[in-house]
């Protein structure tokens, strides 16, 4: 689903940033900081940002932004999701991004909309596009299309872009593990409550 017409996958980038920074271990203490920074740049390139030449100094700002993005997913994680809290979290993000919408054509891409001013840094572009992607998701679908994985012990987030809006897990692996655990729990309950033969 293309929520904002941007040439990057801003919604996917928001989810990936949050998961890499807040839900996955950052590696052992021997991991050089420049390698960790490359991991974030690679993630952005994968989501179609022009981040190949991003300076290593962008990493702390991207990590801080990922923690801010997480507030939107956490607000929607309740049962039922709290749309008011989700909107407050999105508005807080939007209040802190540099806005300067304009049409741009660069690097062989056709004309497309940029949300940050032309002189914006990579971090500013990531911040504006991911904030707008989450704003479009919430304004279009409320708080039902994103949240924290429902699998026990998983803190990864997801954004549901499917037609049926039934997603509650970050990945098929977590959905499968949850289904197996539920099946085993039902079988155990049935075995303990069955009358002796």
Quick description:
With 197 residues, this protein is mainly α.
What does this structure look like?
There is one protein chain. The chain contains six helices and four strands. The chain has 197 residues and is mainly alpha-helical. The protein has a single domain, classed as Jann2411-like domain (Jann2411-like fold, Orthogonal Bundle), CATH 1.10.3300.10. A two-stranded antiparallel ribbon has the order 1-2. A two-stranded antiparallel ribbon has the order 3-4. It comes from Pseudonocardia dioxanivorans (strain ATCC 55486 / DSM 44775 / JCM 13855 / CB1190). This is Zinc finger CGNR domain-containing protein. It holds the Pfam family ABATE.
List the helices and strands and how they pair.
Layout: H1 10-23, H2 33-46, H3 58-75, H4 83-95, E1 102-104, E2 112-114, H5 122-141, E3 146-148, E4 157-159, H6 172-193
Antiparallel strand pairs: 1-2, 3-4
InterPro entries: ABATE, ABATE_dom_sf, Znf_CGNR
Domain Zinc finger CGNR: 145-186
Protein name: Zinc finger CGNR domain-containing protein
């Amino acid at each position: 689903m293309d929520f904002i017409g941007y040439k990057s996958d801003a919604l996917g980038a928001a989810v990936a940033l949050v998961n890499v920074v807040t839900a996955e271990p950052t590696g052992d203490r021997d991991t050089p900081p420049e390698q960790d920074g490359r991991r974030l740049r690679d993630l952005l390139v994968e989501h179609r940002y022009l981040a190949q030449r991003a300076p290593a100094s962008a990493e702390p700002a991207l990590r801080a932004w990922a923690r801010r993005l997480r507030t939107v997913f956490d607000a929607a994680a309740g049962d039922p999701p709290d749309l008011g809290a989700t909107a407050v979290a999105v508005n807080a993000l939007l209040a802190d991004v540099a806005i300067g919408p304009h049409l741009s054509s660069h690097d062989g891409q056709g004309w497309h909309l940029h949300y940050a001013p032309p002189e914006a840094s990579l971090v500013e572009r990531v911040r504006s596009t991911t904030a707008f992607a989450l704003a479009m998701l919430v304004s279009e679908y409320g708080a039902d299309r994103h949240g924290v994985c429902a699998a026990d012990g998983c803190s990864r987030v997801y954004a549901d872009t499917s037609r049926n809006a039934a997603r509650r897990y970050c990945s098929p692996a977590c959905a499968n593990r949850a289904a197996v655990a539920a099946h085993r729990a039902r079988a155990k309950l049935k075995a303990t409550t069955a009358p002796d033969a």
